[in-house]
Amino acid sequence: MTKKANLVTINNPIYIPILEEDYGTIQYYENLGIPVRWIVMHGVGRYYAIMEGDSAVEAKRMTDGLCAMVRKDIRAMQRQNENETSYDALVEEGYDAATDENDPANVVSDLMLVKDLLAECEKLTDEKKRICKGIAEEKTEREMAAEFGIPQTTLHGRKDKLLKELKKKLD
Q1: 10 and 79 share a domain?
Q2: Same domain, yes or no, for 66 and 9?
Q3: Start-to-end Cα distance in the chain
């Protein structure tokens, strides 16, 4: 290995792949005086620690073996990440196992309630269906009243009457 200013020439380089963003490993090799560079190899860009081997044959064998091991490790981690969700990830997404909303009985009950609500909505008049659709689309009473061509107070009364009717049928 010869050095000229910022240029390092290694006769029989062994490329040791470093996993993405593993800055601790990069720092480790650099502290040992082993050069670390970003290289695109086998169609994938990543950091490699570059060491000198005894011969070109040894260097090629070591590099190919190490790259194959890293590719195998990366594929294993990807498979594991695809098939597994950690409890910490669920908690970060807002999952709380202690709440009643995650109880299977409550989920089934909610599904039955939605099914009953949809069945009742099918029996409604066209005007009441339009009001339900406006509520589902989160339109304001003012927007719905303008769309229907009726005063807002009239729409408000009809909407309240509709919601009370649906509540009574579902209870």
Answers
A1: yes
A2: yes
A3: 83
In a domain, 93, yes or no: no
Residues 51, 112 within the same domain = no
User: How confident is residue 160, by pLDDT bands cut at 50, 70 and 90?
Assistant: very high
* Assigned domain for 76 exists: yes
**pLDDT band at residue 105 using 50, 70 and 90 as cut-offs:** confident
Tokens coding 7 = 């240029």
Query: What domain range is 75 assigned to?
Result: 2-83
Long-range residue pairs from 59-65, CB within 8 A, at least 24 positions apart, any chain: 59/12, 59/13, 59/14, 62/14, 63/13, 63/14, 63/15
Secondary element (H or E) of residue 29: helix 23-31
User: How does strand 44-52 pair with strand 36-41?
Assistant: antiparallel
Res 154: pLDDT: 93
Nearest alpha carbon to residue 171 among 117, 124, 101, 122: 117
Tell me phi and psi for residue 137, to 5 degrees: -85, 5
58 shares its domain with 106: no
Encode pLDDT of 20-38 as tens digits.
778 888 888 888 888 888 8
The pLDDT, as a whole number, for residue 151 is 93
Residues 116 and 153 in one domain: yes
Identify the pLDDT of residue 78.
76
